């Protein structure tokens, strides 16, 4: 068991029942989530090199672009790359810039200006 290997208690127990996560357990869970995210990223990189025409593309854009400028571009992209899963997120310029900075989108498309910071 991981607790035995680490020499700390991850969960508090009442008999055989887990009652809560200890402070150390909360930190371990946070790190484990980060590690699993990195494992997914490694698998994604490997997949990109193994199957360059397959994968996922996350685009963040404003409503204006999604509604008027991108439909024909997206249609052409899907026809050319049918094995790529395309995901679109719509939002304000600030929201889509935030999506890219947090890694929730690969890139953003907007013609509207960002609000001054």
From TrEMBL:
<dbReference type="GO" id="GO:0019344">
    <property type="term" value="P:cysteine biosynthetic process"/>
</dbReference>
<keyword id="KW-0238">DNA-binding</keyword>
<dbReference type="Pfam" id="PF03466">
    <property type="entry name" value="LysR_substrate"/>
</dbReference>
<keyword id="KW-0805">Transcription regulation</keyword>
<dbReference type="InterPro" id="IPR036388">
    <property type="entry name" value="WH-like_DNA-bd_sf"/>
</dbReference>
<protein>
    <submittedName>
        <fullName>HTH-type transcriptional regulator CysB</fullName>
    </submittedName>
</protein>
<dbReference type="InterPro" id="IPR036390">
    <property type="entry name" value="WH_DNA-bd_sf"/>
</dbReference>
<dbReference type="InterPro" id="IPR000847">
    <property type="entry name" value="LysR_HTH_N"/>
</dbReference>
<feature type="domain" description="HTH lysR-type">
    <location>
        <begin position="1"/>
        <end position="21"/>
    </location>
</feature>
<comment type="similarity">
    <text>Belongs to the LysR transcriptional regulatory family.</text>
</comment>
<keyword id="KW-0804">Transcription</keyword>
<dbReference type="GO" id="GO:0000976">
    <property type="term" value="F:transcription cis-regulatory region binding"/>
</dbReference>
<dbReference type="GO" id="GO:0003700">
    <property type="term" value="F:DNA-binding transcription factor activity"/>
</dbReference>
<dbReference type="InterPro" id="IPR005119">
    <property type="entry name" value="LysR_subst-bd"/>
</dbReference>
């Amino acid at each position: 068991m991981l607790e035995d290997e680490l020499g700390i208690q991850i969960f508090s127990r009442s008999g055989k029942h887990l009652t809560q996560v200890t402070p150390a357990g909360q930190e371990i869970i946070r790190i484990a989530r980060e590690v699993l995210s990195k494992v997914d990223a490694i698998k994604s990189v490997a997949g990109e090199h193994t199957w360059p025409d397959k994968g996922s593309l996350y685009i963040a854009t404003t409503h204006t672009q999604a509604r008027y400028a991108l439909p024909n571009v997206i249609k052409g992209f899907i026809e050319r790359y049918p094995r790529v899963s395309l995901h679109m997120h719509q939002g304000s310029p600030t929201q889509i810039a935030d999506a890219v900075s947090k890694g929730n989108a690969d890139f953003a498309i907007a013609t509207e200006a960002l609000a001054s910071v």
